[in-house]
Amino acid sequence: MGPATSAAAPGTPTVDGEGVHAVRPVIVFRTGSRWLALAATQVREVVGVLPSHRVPHRRDPRFVGLVNVRGELVPCIDIAALLGIERATAESPKAHPGHRWPRTVLIEQDGQTLAFQVDEVDAVHPVAGEALQPVPPGEPDAAGRLTQAQVDLPVGRTALIDSDLLWYAVNEVWR
After folding, report:
1. Can you give the residue range of the structural domain that contains 130?
2. Is residue 130 situated within a structural domain?
3. Element at 166 (helix H, strand E)
4. Against a cut of 0.85, is the pTM above it?
5. pLDDT range class, residue 33, cuts 50, 70, 90
6. What is the dihedral of CA 22, 111, 114, 52, to 10 degrees?
Protein backbone atom coordinates (compact mmCIF):
# COMPACT_ATOMS: atom_id res chain seq x y z
CA MET A 1 0.00 0.00 0.00
CA GLY A 2 1.49 3.34 -1.01
CA PRO A 3 1.43 6.60 0.85
CA ALA A 4 -1.65 8.79 0.74
CA THR A 5 -2.02 11.08 -2.20
CA SER A 6 -1.86 14.84 -1.95
CA ALA A 7 -4.64 15.70 -4.39
CA ALA A 8 -6.76 17.32 -1.67
CA ALA A 9 -6.01 20.66 -0.08
CA PRO A 10 -3.45 20.56 2.76
CA GLY A 11 -5.14 19.74 6.03
CA THR A 12 -7.86 17.62 4.38
CA PRO A 13 -7.65 13.91 5.26
CA THR A 14 -6.87 11.86 2.19
CA VAL A 15 -6.92 8.13 1.67
CA ASP A 16 -5.27 5.81 -0.76
CA GLY A 17 -7.02 3.97 -3.56
CA GLU A 18 -8.42 1.38 -1.13
CA GLY A 19 -10.95 3.80 0.34
CA VAL A 20 -11.78 5.36 3.66
CA HIS A 21 -11.82 2.03 5.51
CA ALA A 22 -8.28 1.13 4.48
CA VAL A 23 -5.84 0.60 7.33
CA ARG A 24 -2.30 1.79 6.81
CA PRO A 25 0.71 1.63 9.11
CA VAL A 26 2.37 4.84 10.26
CA ILE A 27 5.54 5.34 12.26
CA VAL A 28 5.05 7.72 15.17
CA PHE A 29 7.85 9.92 16.47
CA ARG A 30 8.31 13.01 18.60
CA THR A 31 10.29 16.11 17.83
CA GLY A 32 10.12 18.82 20.43
CA SER A 33 6.76 18.46 22.12
CA ARG A 34 4.93 17.45 18.91
CA TRP A 35 3.99 13.90 18.01
CA LEU A 36 4.15 13.29 14.28
CA ALA A 37 3.46 10.31 12.05
CA LEU A 38 4.67 9.37 8.60
CA ALA A 39 3.53 6.53 6.36
CA ALA A 40 5.61 3.50 7.29
CA THR A 41 6.09 2.78 3.59
CA GLN A 42 8.32 5.88 3.47
CA VAL A 43 10.60 4.72 6.28
CA ARG A 44 13.66 2.72 5.28
CA GLU A 45 14.93 2.23 8.83
CA VAL A 46 15.36 3.76 12.25
CA VAL A 47 18.88 3.73 13.73
CA GLY A 48 20.70 5.25 16.66
CA VAL A 49 21.84 8.85 16.47
CA LEU A 50 24.41 9.28 13.71
CA PRO A 51 27.00 12.06 13.78
CA SER A 52 26.54 14.55 10.98
CA HIS A 53 29.28 16.12 8.92
CA ARG A 54 28.86 19.70 7.74
CA VAL A 55 29.02 20.50 4.07
CA PRO A 56 31.02 23.64 3.21
CA HIS A 57 29.07 26.63 1.90
CA ARG A 58 25.67 25.18 2.91
CA ARG A 59 24.26 27.60 5.44
CA ASP A 60 20.55 26.72 5.48
CA PRO A 61 19.83 25.85 9.14
CA ARG A 62 17.39 23.14 8.00
CA PHE A 63 20.28 21.21 6.39
CA VAL A 64 22.38 19.52 9.06
CA GLY A 65 24.93 17.85 6.79
CA LEU A 66 25.70 14.30 5.74
CA VAL A 67 25.46 11.15 7.85
CA ASN A 68 27.28 7.91 7.14
CA VAL A 69 24.94 4.92 7.05
CA ARG A 70 27.12 1.85 6.61
CA GLY A 71 29.27 3.61 4.01
CA GLU A 72 26.44 5.48 2.27
CA LEU A 73 26.46 9.27 2.67
CA VAL A 74 22.90 10.46 3.26
CA PRO A 75 21.75 14.09 3.52
CA CYS A 76 20.38 14.94 6.96
CA ILE A 77 17.86 17.67 7.67
CA ASP A 78 16.68 19.23 10.91
CA ILE A 79 13.05 18.12 10.85
CA ALA A 80 12.14 20.45 13.73
CA ALA A 81 13.54 23.48 11.87
CA LEU A 82 11.85 22.37 8.64
CA LEU A 83 8.50 22.07 10.42
CA GLY A 84 8.93 25.14 12.64
CA ILE A 85 8.78 23.12 15.85
CA GLU A 86 10.63 24.22 18.97
CA ARG A 87 13.15 21.81 20.42
CA ALA A 88 12.18 19.71 23.44
CA THR A 89 13.38 20.56 26.90
CA ALA A 90 14.34 18.07 29.58
CA GLU A 91 10.97 18.78 31.22
CA SER A 92 8.95 18.25 28.05
CA PRO A 93 5.56 17.07 29.36
CA LYS A 94 4.75 15.00 26.29
CA ALA A 95 7.90 12.89 26.44
CA HIS A 96 7.55 9.42 27.86
CA PRO A 97 9.40 9.24 31.20
CA GLY A 98 12.54 7.18 30.75
CA HIS A 99 11.99 6.83 26.98
CA ARG A 100 14.04 9.74 25.66
CA TRP A 101 16.11 7.84 23.14
CA PRO A 102 16.90 10.07 20.20
CA ARG A 103 17.00 8.26 16.88
CA THR A 104 17.85 8.89 13.26
CA VAL A 105 15.02 8.11 10.85
CA LEU A 106 15.89 7.27 7.24
CA ILE A 107 13.16 7.77 4.67
CA GLU A 108 13.05 7.04 0.94
CA GLN A 109 11.06 8.20 -2.05
CA ASP A 110 11.76 7.79 -5.75
CA GLY A 111 15.30 6.55 -5.11
CA GLN A 112 16.19 9.45 -2.79
CA THR A 113 17.18 8.77 0.81
CA LEU A 114 17.02 11.35 3.57
CA ALA A 115 17.85 11.28 7.27
CA PHE A 116 16.51 13.30 10.17
CA GLN A 117 16.91 13.04 13.90
CA VAL A 118 13.97 12.84 16.28
CA ASP A 119 13.76 13.01 20.05
CA GLU A 120 11.85 9.74 20.38
CA VAL A 121 10.27 7.01 18.25
CA ASP A 122 7.10 5.49 19.67
CA ALA A 123 6.05 2.62 17.39
CA VAL A 124 4.36 1.67 14.16
CA HIS A 125 0.60 2.06 14.56
CA PRO A 126 -2.16 0.94 12.20
CA VAL A 127 -4.43 3.85 11.29
CA ALA A 128 -7.84 3.36 9.74
CA GLY A 129 -8.99 5.92 7.21
CA GLU A 130 -12.08 6.76 9.27
CA ALA A 131 -9.85 7.69 12.26
CA LEU A 132 -8.31 10.59 10.34
CA GLN A 133 -9.47 14.02 11.43
CA PRO A 134 -9.04 17.31 9.58
CA VAL A 135 -6.29 19.69 10.67
CA PRO A 136 -7.72 22.76 12.42
CA PRO A 137 -7.39 25.87 10.25
CA GLY A 138 -4.62 28.29 11.09
CA GLU A 139 -1.96 25.87 12.35
CA PRO A 140 0.85 28.28 13.28
CA ASP A 141 3.88 26.35 12.00
CA ALA A 142 5.03 24.51 8.91
CA ALA A 143 4.03 21.21 10.53
CA GLY A 144 0.42 22.34 10.08
CA ARG A 145 1.00 23.14 6.41
CA LEU A 146 2.63 19.75 5.80
CA THR A 147 0.01 17.82 7.77
CA GLN A 148 -2.66 15.96 5.84
CA ALA A 149 -4.67 14.89 8.91
CA GLN A 150 -4.63 14.31 12.64
CA VAL A 151 -5.25 11.07 14.45
CA ASP A 152 -5.66 10.21 18.12
CA LEU A 153 -3.12 7.56 19.13
CA PRO A 154 -1.95 6.23 22.52
CA VAL A 155 0.68 9.01 22.68
CA GLY A 156 -2.00 11.66 22.10
CA ARG A 157 -3.08 13.78 19.15
CA THR A 158 -0.66 13.08 16.33
CA ALA A 159 -0.15 15.01 13.09
CA LEU A 160 0.08 12.79 10.00
CA ILE A 161 2.68 14.35 7.73
CA ASP A 162 1.91 14.30 4.01
CA SER A 163 4.97 12.60 2.55
CA ASP A 164 4.68 14.32 -0.84
CA LEU A 165 4.56 17.76 0.80
CA LEU A 166 7.47 16.79 3.07
CA TRP A 167 9.62 15.86 0.08
CA TYR A 168 8.61 19.08 -1.67
CA ALA A 169 9.73 21.08 1.39
CA VAL A 170 12.99 19.10 1.55
CA ASN A 171 13.70 19.84 -2.10
CA GLU A 172 13.26 23.54 -1.30
CA VAL A 173 16.14 23.20 1.21
CA TRP A 174 18.51 22.06 -1.57
CA ARG A 175 17.82 25.12 -3.75
Report:
1. 23-89+111-174
2. yes
3. helix 163-174
4. no
5. confident
6. 150
